[in-house]
Amino acid sequence: MLTVKQWLQEYDASHQNRTNKRIHWVCVPAIMFSIIGLLWAIPRPAVFAEFPLLLNWAVIIAGPLLLYYCLLSLRLAFGMTLLLAAMFGLMFLLAQTALSIGYFSIALFVSAWAGQFIGHEIEGKKPSFFKDLQFLLIGPLWIMAFIYRRLGVAY
Questions:
Q1: Are the CB atoms for 44 and 117 separated by under 8 Å?
Q2: Region 13-24: what's the mean pLDDT?
Q3: How is 89-111 classified by DSSP, letter by letter?
Q4: Do residues 129 and 136 lie in contact, with contact meaning Cβ atoms separated by under 8 Å?
Q5: pTM for this entry
Q6: What distance in Å separates the CA atoms of residue 99 and residue 134, rounded to the nearest whole number?
Q7: For residue 1, is pLDDT > 90?
Q8: What is the pLDDT of residues 46-62, one digit of tens each?
Q9: Nearest 5 degrees, angle CA 44-CA 49-CA 52?
């Protein structure tokens, strides 16, 4: 298994163009949020009814995701936990509105991926996940690592 430093360096190699980086700053969190929404929108089994606000498919999938991040870096995993908690809170608020979480998430997902591909066209390099699907999980970590570096927090 690669170290977090190796994953981030390899991801960074195909994200050097300033415009592509800016696009990723918007689109990577948007994709992550849209996936939470898509999972949130999946009908829940009756057994979940005992925990109506706390248990849905998005929360269940977040567990293994955070475990993966913990294996790479406990400090970055902490930041990702905070980010996911904020996204879950926002999704909970959106779920209280008349907005269709499923349709909203599909539109956001498609739009954000279009942005990603435009960014990579500008960059002139293929997206990293074409090489290894794990890079789909590294993208959000790459942004969190940037935030940590700016704050002077080691990871």
A1: no
A2: 95
A3: HHHHHHHTSSS-HHHHHHHHHHH
A4: yes
A5: 0.92
A6: 32
A7: no
A8: 888 777 667 899 999 99
A9: 90
- Residue type for 108, please? L
> What is the full DSSP assignment across the chain?
---HHHHHHHHHHT--SHHHHHHHHHHHHHHHHHHHHHHHHSPPPGGGGGSTTT-SHHHHHHHHHHHHHHHH-HHHHHHHHHHHHHHHHHHHHHHTSSS-HHHHHHHHHHHHHHHHHHHHHHHTS--GGGT-TTHHHHHHHHHHHHHHHHHT---
Give residue-wise pLDDT tens across range 107-145.
Answer: 999 999 999 999 999 999 998 898 889 999 999 999 999
